[in-house]
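Regression report. Comparing outputs from two consecutive submissions.

Submission 1:
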Amino acid sequence: MTDMIYLDNNATTPVHPAVLEAMLPLWRAGGHGNPSSAHGVGRAARKALAEARETAARALGARPDEIAFAPNGTCADNVALLGTFALRGWRGHLVTAAIEHPAVLRVAEELERRGVAVTRVGVDASGVVDVAAVRAALRPDTALVSLMLANNEVGTLQPVRAVVELARARGVLVHSDVVQAFGKVRVDAEDLGVDILALSAHKFHGPKGVGLLYARSGRKLGPQAWGAGQEHGLFPGTENVAYAVGMAEAMRRASAEVAAYGVHTRALRDRLWDGLAARVSGIHRNGDPARMLPNTLNFSCDGVEGDQLMMNLDLEGVAVSTGSACHSGAIEPSHVLTAMGCSPERGRGALRVSLAGETRPEEIERVLALLPAVVERLRALGGGGAGGQADLLREVHQKR
């Protein structure tokens, strides 16, 4: 729908027209070469890929030889963790956080199956990891700490730099999933100090299907796929040059505009929260307002299921997301909110609103006009539990 109010930008963002324009020449005649080919078309592709790597490195505060383009952020996270322990014969110890993305948590489970010990550090009620808890979790055989920079659900910013300092003193490597942070807050690999980090282009108006793995100079990772050795041997296969160019352009734009983005989205996010807090009783903010992405608002409403609230807003032309997952008709609260100590009811009632630089004040005012009435309607209906979900889904699809 062209008139949809899109407030789910932590899930994905639309490709910026300038990014698409940068990619188009790579699909036209003469721009489609294989970078490994020796002829002119191949050389042109190789030059475009090298320039994309340089642009991405500048935007990240890194060196071009520290950058490997990946199929997506999940693959980059997988290779970061698996590649670290592959070189150690699947032995050693990993410290991570209970609120990590599945791209890290599922890999941690796989590492345990292969013989690696894993400690999952908890968070406080605001969703922030305690550095002292990370320090206490370190062991003589700890090889890696993996801590995301910003949580994708509640938006809390994690103390990655402080963790780097204590890990470095113990000779421990640090990996950070910065997929949700880049473009929303300033991210500089050198300043952050991590050894490895992962990005995904579609989170900051780049194309889906391309990510990036940064490994600080001298940090080696064991390959998890084998082929002709492209991208430092970590992601072998013919490179997707057009998507790498698109990601680099999106990174350039995002890093240049991050300050203005923060001012714009924070003002609108705070307007939305202040308006909701004044108009909706029994509403609770999830996360730490002082340490949070500027664009993210996660909240729960007493007596209302988040899925039902999301679908009712969808019927009104507003796209948001929930903090819960539905499996075979059973709605379960997110692992993030559970780790924060939220009750199952509060977890199931969570809604995430995530803004973008393109979000307009009138869209926020429209949501403020709609959401309180939707909450009251659902409360009058008894919360709109999972029993009526199938009927509501049918109504959503019919209206669309």
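Submission 2:
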Amino acid sequence: MNTRPLPEGPVPVLLVGLHGHGRSHLRALRPLADQGLVRLVGVCDPRPPTPGDDLEGHGPVPHFDDLDRALRETEARVTVLVTPIHTHLPLARTVLAHGSHLLLEKPTTATLAELHELTDAVAASGLACQVGFQSLGSAGIDHVRHLLAEGAVGELRGIGGAGTWKRTSAYYDRAPWAGRRRMAGHDVVDGALTNPFAHMVATSLALADGGSHAPREITPDLFHAHPIEADDTSCLRLRTHEDIPVCLAVTLCAPRSLPPALHLHGERGHITFEYTVDRITVHRPGHAPLTTTHPRTGLMENLIAHLREDVPLLVPPTATLGFTHVLEAVRTAPDPRPIPTEYQDVWREAGATHRTVHDIEALVRLSARRMTTFADLGAAWAASIPTAHPLEVRS
């Protein structure tokens, strides 16, 4: 860790990336500021705050459009980077060069090679870097591990994931890099698996083997209904370092948004982990389902505890190695196949285009339960994709 001590009192924090998802970081910082743990000392973004913006209760702070100047003038000791994926590595290097610790929004980097560069840069700096996979702060992860260790559903046979969210054309119009695989010569990889449902990938790997190992096999089947470069409807199949099969099915073209869920299939039942709401349900034959809800530690709170009290970081860059191998497989895979409009409902509403893939909710749920692909389930729009034999998992 950097030998430069933190100042007494609230830790000065700089937010880079004010608009869009940056607002959620402002909201997350507010209770910590009220507790005297942090103090927002500036925001950095090409676009300034709108007149009268109280920054989610933080009040007026200096605005900068240059990161070097912002870091120099604010002397921030922690910097929150909420910027396009392909900017993460160069901006992180700038932050570290100024001696500031880092909370880096996920995905960690746009390529596997960049992750290794970032890991080396963090280690050389002696500073701390936390990656913004909020779901990995859930106490539910340790609870699921405890259930598995005590044999609550018998031996773990595999993990299936089901994610059904609704996103309209407005989601892809929000930023030039949204829905892109590449832009201006840079890898972006802004697809459903690597950004909106990145937490599903990271959480499944954390439950299976800790997330810091490269999977043995990774096979992404990528599709899109929206007119974008990246995937919005996909199935990911892999085998972890510990040889546990994982099959994740996701879409941003569902008729509605529901809490995504991981299903841990055991030989005597299964565990459902709805990771966005920290809710766990144990299903066993002959028993009523048992549901529990668990607390979550905020990543900034954990980062401050790490700097003040040497508490272990929840999500250092090394903990995202498995996820970044998945991102790399998606990045280097053939471009996603379009889902023909004959398999979609398409309409305009409130100035945006809405797209729903036919029967997609049922397909996603069935894929997670049977651990197999859309093509193997008979989806006509996926039939041209050659598939391997399904991962045979039953619970």
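Expected: both submissions complete independently.
Actual: both completed, but the second showed a warning that disappeared on reload.
Relevant detail on submission 2: Residues 385-395 have pLDDT under 50 and may be disordered.
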